[in-house]
Amino acid sequence: MVEVSANNGLNRCPHCGGSDIVTDEKEGKLRCNFCQTLFDAKSDNATGGMDKLKGDTVHEGASNIVPGDDIVQTFKCPACGAEVVINTNEATSASCHWCRHIFSINEKISNGAVPDLVLPFKLTKEEAIEKVREAVDLGSNNLSEEFRNNFKPEEVRGVYFPYMIIDLNTHWTSYGEAQKTEEGSTTPPYHYEEYNISREFDLLIDDLTVESSAGRLNQDTYVNSNNIINAILPFDTENAVAWNADYLRGYASERRSVDTDSLKEVVALQTGDVARRYIKESAPQYDRGTHWENEHLKVNGSKWKAAYLPVWLYSYKPEKESRIYYVAVNARTGETVGCVPTKGSSGMNIEARHHHENETHYEIKNLKESDKYSKKGKSFKNEIDFRNDTRVIGSLSHGREEMLGVERGRFRNGANYTHAQGRKSGNLFVTIVTWFFILMFAAMFITALFKDIRGDYSGHRSGSSSSSYDSSYDSGSSYDSGGSWDSGGSSDTSSGFSYDW
To answer: How many C-beta atoms lie closer than 10 Å to residue 74's C-beta?
Structure first.
């Protein structure tokens, strides 16, 4: 089902009918420049009702991107690759908010869809300048001299960035083994009790906020530092108002470049992080942690809205580096995160991220718990083997890829998702069998190669067949990639989607 909820026109002043409208940052409202009347900006993002969601409801602004041209036009920056949205009704020239390149008409490209919602700027530029100054410690001996000498916080710019705001009606099930330390066991070997546990509940997510610009998804922070845009979340999205082009006046903006289907995996992973964190915090007795053998998320219903969220952005590019550094200020809450160049390192706050597992609003319903005593044991380790209850795998920073590399060893087709480890009793067996087959096929290959060389030397006098080694064999083909999900079809489907770890 697709709902229409976007207003693509321009506001007129309710008092005088004028169309010269700008945003009043301090009040978070629109102001008529002719008679100075302020408009009340009422929220258009109602909360609650997640348990009634069935299938995928995609609002008009979040629907698949359709190329088109209107007063809101998009330019492709040849310097850094950003796609910047400009309101041509009130701007005859523009520059990139990332690297400050001045655009020409030849750099215009097809537009993405306009959003459903916009969250107006609240902090003024003067307040943002002060926030940027506070975030950069000019007295630090570790700060790059080049940056210190060229630091100009007054060059901060207001930018609207594209996000998806998603409400979810989901069902979570998981089972595994958990351990708690026996009372008085404070030194190795630790004595513990082990339990077979399971958890099942409805998980309702309110306003999960995910970036919808392809350039900031799955960022490698060794190359890019714009992950600080993600780190200044959360926004007070409950106060977002219906989209109107007037809100762009005086600000730059960036177009949405990914559709809902491309974000479903990230949404599933972040929802799983919320569920896992809730379980961990609700069962503190298992101080040695939990090994989850199976985790399943079923999304019964979802509601997608596209939104523009406000950021004050300061950028800096060193002369001899390809990386651009940023300081970002949440223009609603004042949360400020900076990544600036330091001496002999990649910069401070390089791994900054949004802690979605803690900061997402959620509700638990119909909780079913089972905790059955299994056995006693002792270990020189202070946690359960193959512990996986502390994972956060929905983060978009390099840290997520690094963590997954440790847990799984590799990705399948570059997908950033993971699977709970198999039963501990079977892991050693699986490893032994895997290495056995690797060595066996290596031996077969060497034997076949030797025979082939010998056959070539003798001129294949016997007419024997070529090597028995099958060159099409893929040693990774039997590897269980683990994470799997079913999107349930197109973005308008009523079947929802699911995800298995």
So the answer is: 20
Q: Is residue 478 part of a domain?
A: no
What pTM value is reported for the model? 0.70
CA atoms of 146 and 164, how far apart (whole Å) = 37
| Cα angle for residues 247, 253, 255 (degrees, 5° grid) | 115
Mean pLDDT by 10 residues, the chain (501 residues): 34 66 71 73 72 84 62 70 64 62 49 78 96 91 90 95 96 97 95 98 97 72 68 94 83 86 90 96 97 95 95 90 88 93 72 89 97 97 94 65 41 31 44 72 68 42 31 26 42 60 72
Same domain, 77 and 136: yes
Q: What is the DSSP string of 423-445?
A: -HHHHHHHHHHHHHHHHHHHHHH
Please give the single-letter amino acid code of residue 274: V
What range defines the domain where residue 443 resides?
431-457
284 and 305 belong to one structural domain: yes
Please give the C-alpha separations between residue 231 and each of 73, 188, 326, 359, in angstroms, as whole numbers.
28, 39, 12, 12
Nearest C-alpha neighbor of 167 from the set 55, 60, 275: 55
In this structure, are residues 61 and 114 in contact, taking their beta carbons and an 8 Å threshold? Answer: yes
User: Exposed/middle/buried for 92, CB within 10 Å: 0-12, 13-18, 19+?
Assistant: exposed
Please indicate, yes or no, whether residues 33 and 160 belong to a single structural domain of this protein.
yes
Task: Please check whether residue 184 lies inside any domain of the structure.
Answer: no
Of 398, 308, 392, give the one whose Cα is nearest residue 346.
398
Does some domain include residue 488?
no
Contact 165, 208 (CB under 8 A): yes
Integer CA distances (angstroms), 462 to 350, 444, 458, 467, 496, in order: 65, 21, 9, 14, 62
Pairing of strands 83-87, 72-76: antiparallel
Is residue 378 assigned to a domain? Answer: no
3-state secondary structure of 307: strand
Helices (H) and strands (E) in the chain, counts: 7, 19
Whether the ω angle into residue 120 lies within 30 degrees of 0, i.e. cis, is no
- Per the DSSP assignment, residues forming a β-bridge with 330 are 311
| CA dist., res. 351 & res. 344, Å (int) | 17
Q: Are residues 356 and 452 in the same domain?
A: no
Tell me the C-alpha to C-alpha distance, in Å, between residue 425 and each of 386, 422, 431.
11, 8, 11
The verdict on 299 and 436 lying in the same domain is: no
Q: How many domains does the chain have?
A: 2
